């Protein structure tokens, strides 16, 4: 969106901000469209020193096509910002379009991994029990599809609630929930507010079965965290992760009309600060200044899950893209010959890639025209893998 006032066909609104012509601007200016809560960075910022040697530009095979370089992949996949860290040092940093070091970009479902870490910290402190029923913390959902589910089911997206994550279907549950939280205009039968939506969600099957990606599970998780701690999510992330991690800039999280955070995809942050989070995970939950933030036990069970977690993933349609993978504690994984790779993934091309074997973190913020693009994702993962050697 340029000029002021912009031409009517260029104005970004709640009705159009996720459309291809508008989303690149919207992803970096969401607080101008929707209410947000600040995630304070505090006064302490950890350093990300720059490595002097140039980064290589390896060649990969474009899915279904010919050879391309990693830089060509990133250029072709609508990158807004790219950061590559090796051993906590910046080896590549690139901003495209109007994005800058201080731009807060929408993380979409990368947000889920931050909420998962908040839950892990609360579990370690005894405020949450993974085996406890959801209703122990949020009795308001006793009469909906979450009845009988446990925190563990929610963390690993193995609840049985009726929820379709179908972005191209206007009547899907994910689109209904988006309208309830204010990301799109309400329709006559929609409820107002994310938690109101969760209270009326139905049952689609038993809990504890196959992994099925459901954004509503992260919103349920966020509600449980807030209830257990007595603190809203923006302040939980700030005090438990953002400030002790040494973030450089404040982040923010979108909230609905009643002030509830959109836990599943509403966090906005800068490229480097998301890199700090990736480095935190690479370093087993220890920040660059040596302070432990995420419990080691929590990350150990995330990187090395029980067999049933792998089995719950293996038969899904995610397996071809992420071979040998699993979903645990709000993180994605796939397996390379050198070991597991952790991923934080969000629609429209948001990614954090953590390869402990090569000590590499790649952060990519993007504006894919479509919410999901299998070719773009496969090419991006191949480019990241080629860099992480």
TrEMBL record:
InterPro entries: Beta-lactam-related, Beta-lactam/transpept-like, Diverse_Enzym_Activities. Residues 81-377 form the Beta-lactamase-related domain. It comes from the Bacteria. This is Beta-lactamase-related domain-containing protein. The lineage of its organism: Bacteria, Bacillati, Actinomycetota, Actinomycetes, Mycobacteriales.
């Amino acid at each position: 969106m340029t000029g002021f006032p912009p031409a009517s066909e260029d104005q970004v609104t709640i009705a159009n901000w996720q459309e291809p012509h508008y989303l690149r601007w919207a992803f970096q200016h969401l607080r101008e469209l929707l209410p947000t809560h600040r995630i304070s960075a505090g006064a302490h910022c950890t350093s990300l020193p720059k490595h002097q040697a140039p980064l290589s530009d390896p060649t990969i095979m474009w899915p279904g096509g010919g050879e391309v370089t990693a830089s060509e992949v990133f250029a072709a996949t609508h990158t807004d910002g790219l950061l590559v860290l090796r051993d906590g040092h910046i080896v590549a940093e690139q901003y495209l379009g109007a994005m800058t070091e201080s731009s807060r970009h929408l993380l979409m479902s990368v947000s889920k991994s931050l909420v998962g870490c908040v839950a892990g910290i609360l579990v370690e402190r005894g405020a949450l029990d993974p085996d406890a029923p959801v209703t122990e913390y949020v009795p308001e959902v006793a009469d909906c599809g979450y009845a009988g589910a446990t925190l563990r089911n929610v963390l690993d997206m193995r609840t049985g609630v009726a929820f379709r994550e179908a972005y191209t279907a206007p009547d899907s549950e994910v689109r209904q929930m988006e309208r309830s939280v204010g990301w799109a205009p309400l329709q006559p039968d929609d409820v107002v507010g994310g938690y109101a939506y969760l209270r009326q969600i139905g049952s689609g099957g038993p809990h504890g079965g196959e992994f099925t990606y459901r954004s509503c599970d992260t919103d349920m998780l966020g509600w449980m965290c807030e209830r257990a701690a007595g603190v809203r999510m923006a302040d939980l992330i700030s005090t438990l992760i953002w400030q002790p991690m040494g973030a450089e800039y404040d982040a923010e999280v979108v909230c609905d009309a009643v002030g509830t955070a959109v836990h599943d995809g509403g966090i906005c942050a800068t490229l480097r600060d998301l890199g700090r989070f990736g480095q935190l995970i690479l370093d087993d939950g220890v920040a660059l200044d040596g302070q432990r933030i995420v419990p080691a036990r929590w990350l150990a069970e995330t990187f090395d899950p029980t067999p049933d977690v792998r089995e719950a993933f293996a038969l899904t349609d995610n397996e071809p893209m992420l071979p040998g993978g699993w979903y645990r504690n709000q993180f994605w994984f796939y397996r390379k010959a050198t070991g597991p790779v952790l991923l934080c993934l969000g629609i429209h091309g948001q990614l954090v890639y953590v390869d402990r074997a090569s000590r590499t973190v790649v952060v990519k913020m993007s504006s894919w025209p479509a919410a999901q693009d299998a070719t773009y994702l496969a090419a991006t993962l191949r480019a990241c893998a080629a860099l992480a050697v």
